[in-house]
Structure formats: C-alpha cells, structure tokens
Amino acid sequence: MKAVILAAGLGSRLKKLTKDTPKALVKVNGTTMLESLILRLKKQGFDEFLINIHHHGLKIIDYLTINNNFGVNITISDERNKLLDTGGAILKAKDFIIGNDPVLIHNVDIISDLQFDLLREYHNSKNSIATLCVRERETNRGLLFNNNMLLTGWVNKSKNQFKWVKSEQSSFHNYAYSGIYMINPDFISEITFRGQFSIIDAWLDIAGRKDISGYVDDSLVWHDLGTIDKINTVEQNQKLL
Predict the structure, then answer these.
(1) Each residue of 226-237: b (16+ CB within 10 Å) or e?
(2) Is domain 2-235 given the CATH code 1.10.260.40 in the classification?
(3) Cβ(150)–Cβ(233) under 8 Å?
(4) For residues 24-47, b (16+ Cβ closer than 10 Å) or e, as one string?
(5) Which residues lie closer than 8 Å to 13 by C-beta, 6 or more apart?
C-alpha cells in the first residue's frame, strides 16, 4: 500500500526547534515525527512511501539513508527549489500516485491511533474520489458536509468567510480536518490548479464534479504536533501516544 507523507513545511510555529532542523526530524518523546509515522504506517501494511522535502531537505535524505529507509521503499519528492504547498505537492507526486489502489496522504506532524484499514473500507464503500478524515473539535477553519457526508464547503469562522462547492447551503455539518486523507489515483487527473496551491481549493473545485466524502474519526488519540506547547503536552502525557 502507498502513502504520501507531507514533510516539506517550514515548521515556523516550532520556532527554535526548526531553525537548523526540518520539522519532520523534530523529536517527540525521543523519536522523530518522521520515524514515528513511518513505523506506525508500516505496522498497518504500508510499504511504499513518497516524502516531500523542502526546509533542510538534505537532512531528511541523510536521515533516511542512515536508517535504511526503515525497511520500506521511499521516493523523495524534492521541493527544495520551490515549496509547492499542500496541493502542489500532490500534483508533483502524480507518478507515484498513479496505479490501481487508493493512496493515503498524511501530514508528518499528526499523530493518531486511526485504523487505516477502517478508513480504506469506508473510502471504498462510499465510491468517492477522496475521503477526508475529520474530527469533532474546536477550530476556526472547518470543512462543511451535507447529510450524506459529502463535501459542500469550507468556513473561516473568525472572518465569517465561506467557500462553497456549488452554491450556498443553509444546512451543513462543520468538522475540523485531521491532516489525513485518502484518494483514488484518478484524483490527480481532476486537479485543475498548477504550481503552488492549497489542497483545500482543489478539494472544493473537484467536489463540484466528483464526490468527496468525510470520515469522522473518533479514535481516542489525535494530536497536531505543530507547536512547542502541543509537543510538550504529548510528552508530559505519554499515555496519549
């Protein structure tokens, strides 16, 4: 099974921790985010990975080489010359994504105990081109779904700003994106944007033509490791891992 790990972010919210280190190599409880994620996915059957790099990208390449790629096949998508954002990164990975089976996309700074086989079963049952993992948690920016859990819009509550797939909706469910989603290989051919762009804009555009579903993840463990405070919280409560 294939997984794309998005690891090219600058990690600016981590401040001093990422001055000389890529976010993916920041340690949480003594283990880098990247190693933790690869091993967790490997344990659940993933054996082919694509990892995008930008900030201190050579350090990620060297780290993987020293660790023999943790026993899996890894392709590097090099964005050191230009950071492509969450959407451009997926478009650049098209040769890796092409195939017959769904591909998992996972942010490197997310840790969870999500069972990926259940996500894949749900994705296949919905016959959607993409399935977005969401959670019921507080957030200013949310993904909006109709009663059939199909993507219908996006909201920034702090600015009262909405973006709709087709037309404004009066009834919807608001969920927080969890940093994990699954796509069919033909998702790539539906992307109309080029260069650097947000995957959210691509989702909203594609959802006007193809079904994009939401999968409500209620697993006990889910953490965004994007700030020092959040890392400290996890480290002080090791049972959360």
Answers:
(1) beeebbeebeee
(2) no
(3) no
(4) bbbebeeebbbbbbbebbeebebe
(5) 226, 227, 228
Q: What is the pTM for the complete model shown?
A: 0.95
What confidence score (pLDDT) does residue 86 get? 97
Give the integer Cα–Cα distance in Å for 193 and 19.
31
- The residue extents of the domains of the chain are 2-235
Query: pLDDT for 128-178, tens place per residue?
Result: 999 999 999 988 999 999 999 999 999 999 999 999 999 998 899 999 999
Q: CB of 55 within 8 A of CB of 12?
A: no
Maximum distance among all alpha carbons in the chain? 54
> How much is the CA Rg of the chain, to the nearest whole Å?
17
As a whole number of Å, the end-to-end CA separation of the chain is 24
Cβ distance 30 to 64 under 8 Å? no
DSSP H/E element including 189: helix 187-190
| Chain position carrying tokens 């080029």 | 194
